[in-house]
Amino acid sequence: MSVIEKTAAVVTPSEARQSADAAAQIERREGAKVMTSWQTGRAARDARIAAGAGLAHGKIVEAKDATRLLEAVIRPGDRVCLEGDNQKQADLLSRALLAVDLSRVKDLHMVQSGVVLPEHLDLFDRGVAKRLDYAYSGPQSARIARMLFGGKIELGAVHTYLELFARYFIDLTPHVALIAAVSADREGNLYTGPNTEDTPTVVEATAFKDGVVIAQVNEIVEKVPRVDIPADRVQFIVESDKPFFVEPLFTRDPAAITEGQILTAMLAIKGIYAPYGVQRLNHGIGFSTAAIELLLPTFGERLGLKGLIATHFALNPHPALIPAIESGWVRQIHSFGSEVGMDEYIRARSDVYFTGPDGSLRSNRAFCQTAGLYACDMFIGSTLQIDLQGNSSTVTTSRIAGFGGAPNMGADARGRRHPSEPWLKAGAEADPDSPAPLRRGRKLVVQIGETFGDKNVPLFVEKLEAIELAEKLKLELAPVMIYGDDVTHIVTEEGLANLLLCRTAQEREQAIRGVAGYTDVGRRRDRNMVACLRERGVIRRPEDLGINPLDADRSLLAARSIKDLVRWSGGLYSPPSKFRNW
Amino acid sequence: MSVIEKTAAVVTPSEARQSADAAAQIERREGAKVMTSWQTGRAARDARIAAGAGLAHGKIVEAKDATRLLEAVIRPGDRVCLEGDNQKQADLLSRALLAVDLSRVKDLHMVQSGVVLPEHLDLFDRGVAKRLDYAYSGPQSARIARMLFGGKIELGAVHTYLELFARYFIDLTPHVALIAAVSADREGNLYTGPNTEDTPTVVEATAFKDGVVIAQVNEIVEKVPRVDIPADRVQFIVESDKPFFVEPLFTRDPAAITEGQILTAMLAIKGIYAPYGVQRLNHGIGFSTAAIELLLPTFGERLGLKGLIATHFALNPHPALIPAIESGWVRQIHSFGSEVGMDEYIRARSDVYFTGPDGSLRSNRAFCQTAGLYACDMFIGSTLQIDLQGNSSTVTTSRIAGFGGAPNMGADARGRRHPSEPWLKAGAEADPDSPAPLRRGRKLVVQIGETFGDKNVPLFVEKLEAIELAEKLKLELAPVMIYGDDVTHIVTEEGLANLLLCRTAQEREQAIRGVAGYTDVGRRRDRNMVACLRERGVIRRPEDLGINPLDADRSLLAARSIKDLVRWSGGLYSPPSKFRNW
């Protein structure tokens, strides 16, 4: 009630009338200056552009003048979006920003989805930036943790992508956006190429709220292959000396898939995809889901599931999905971003992917996240830690990787109003007693992994390190990736736990312990209760699903190497050199 | 397990290897034809464009040829998005589509957010269209109900906007989009004007998945004021004989606001906005929320709340908000669409609204719905019926109005990971026992209205007519607008019920009955339990909040007429003639 305490007694009608009329009078007197006094943002924007114009020929600024341009356009304390995506990086502009004169540019509030380049954090070390709101920081996760503990970064929040994009339009609107594109024409029309990613969203929020948009481009051309961003939303173009940095984040070498992962993939296909009839879905980027993609044309084909499952995806162009696509499993894929080496394959498979008039992929993270939220019936992915309530996190006390899209896709959209078979079946399992027309469905949210992950670190823990981190950093929310009450299934090599069928917190805990294998969490199970959960079908072992663990053989993979994927693609997929061993 | 039953026994590794290699061989043999056989959509799109080209000069087709164009481009059974927004209508194209030769165009699957014009339903009467997936049908709600009962329409689902947009990218991608814009240049660049609304979303889903985009425009110009849609996403332009239809849906005449609505507005401001400190929010379009907007500069000012509440909105340009804006309450507004008559005011208040380089509003329904979902702490709106569990619906057995954005904004986003004071406070009230760092917040979802609404129809009912409708139409989901477990507060002239503080279904029911006034639901309350809920602060009467119902006087409204709003705007707001009585 803090706000209320400050307030006077309730107003009387006469007082109110006076204040209303007074305000109206002031307004009428000020009528004349309104046009100027209510367009301060517009005026400031024009001043920023004018300040930068001296360095530009038309909209084009030479790379060597990039830092001076940023010094001219950016003001201390500005909210700046330095793109900063999951894959594509405006690396030239990040280096240019790092070099600014601190007397002119400092204490910036960075609002960018990806904190990926060392420069992104150097900005905070140098004092160019002060506050951070972000979504993903994979490669910088260890350093960002150290800097948060060291107080080098004032943390706003760790968001899921769509959540950060939402705030761009409400309370985190950028003053300046520093973006990356493949090419620009002299008017400033931009071609992003396949990695459109966040760019249209960042530009829309900035350009239409009196902000300034500066783009680095790989080249300036007479005519762009397609217009991803119209020229009138872009104020300055910097031609880069080399192409922007983009990382192949979604390439999983089939050669690295273990038989344990193959077993979990078999359990998922036969124990979840098949009985729920999951057709619209998103896959995480782990090896277990890559194994699922590679088992569809073999194990899935034999189960007669072609056309019945995994037909529509919200997914990046995973190379591991090539065999399933070539075998006719996949009807349509909408993508958040692209993947290095997949360009020619995508171009030749336009029936499957979203492509532009130029033939190359058009990705869009905002729309694909929206699709993952509202139009998919399942999210399946991996995590680092799962606790006894089923809460999971990729955050540890030494690594703050961020969440990316998992929180958005790893929960049921309560605004959803269209039914589908998998969604209704999951809802009925969770809530058998509600009257059908009032019973909501549930999105399938599946966590898949081996009980002991990388370096034999147990997947299951009594307490998430994320909670310890929250206490240390005094965060109001522990950085949980997916909350236990949103998870519907957990799959490990020991079996499949259907949490939708658990009726008490205790059953839930034992269902989790019951698939936690030889981890401490697994060994502390209540054997009788786990046995009874298995009888009820809450826990299902491989044999319960007619799967012989000995059949979990690498030869089940439709492709066993990157080279196999190239072959499947008819030579259209050209993997980055780091994945080539031939 | 239906799918599983069809399946053979699990494959052996050797079988799998054979199938994998076989598939790979087939692929290699077919390598040559890949380029064609996987681009059927692209080829079909080119054929559609070629078929229409004969009627076009460049991309421009005369209005008289519109029907022939649609006959040339559209195929039987196509998924067609006929825009079809909340406000803006591609009316010329809807008339043109209605006139097609049924031997060439029929059985279309309409996927459009708004079913607003009579022609939208005439299409089904004539057999041009067969199946419908939509989100909102305000003015056609009675007829659409009759046609559903009559089997004239095969219903997909009634969505919330963002949900339908999501499906555009997964399983409801349009083959053809028929859209509306203000102007086009000869290349086909489009200017939507302030009512951008759904257009960028519809065009993105269609143009980048081998679809055809046809735009009706009010005029063809040398240069568009700004590029809302780039030319390479648009195949045909039809110049309309008159401007597209757009309805002023968000204009509420202050003269029509009742003292009962003013009282509910006072209760909401002092009982919810103030104690939670709600700054980021969305308002529904009812008169009670219009009253809240008009009380901010008077009642709100006296409570000392300026700057502490209602600073950032996801909201259309409501004329009723003008006095609050002029009084310095509102920092920023992002809009779904625009509002007739507000153009000059918005242009002159660019500090508040999102505007383009041309100075006019840039709205965007997809991004504003995303903002309402993830970046707002409160949704407050009205409904037609509320049942004993708190489920609400605007659907009755005789009217199926659709949900628009309410389901999306009227629920907590479970993917949300950023804290805010109101969200955390609501979460703590709902779940006081969870450990803080693992406790999630809750969005405030408020239903506000008088116990007896239009024509003295009671707001509270024992059973929603939506359930009856679901039974009659054999729908798998009753058309519930907002589910009871998502509602946090109900406000009527009798008082305020905080459902977050209810611990049992029974308490919840009595809290609802306790503010249901003299409706049957209200009269059947358990007086002792209601008294005890009031002692606990679950129910709060006006006097509990220091509000004297006699002060709920129309003179509290900052503007009491449309003319007052014009005066507040300094003459910048020019209301449509139907709202002018001077």
Automatic annotation (TrEMBL), chains A, B:
Annotated GO MF terms: transferase activity
Cited InterPro entries: MadA (IPR005777), NagB/RpiA_transferase-like (IPR037171)
Top-rank lineage group of the source organism: Bacteria
Chain spans, region Disordered: 411-436
PANTHER family linked: ACETATE COA-TRANSFERASE YDIF, MALONATE DECARBOXYLASE ALPHA SUBUNIT
Name under which the protein is recorded: Malonate decarboxylase alpha subunit
SUPFAM superfamilies reported in the protein's UniProt record: NagB/RpiA/CoA transferase-like
One family name in Pfam for this protein: Mal_decarbox_Al
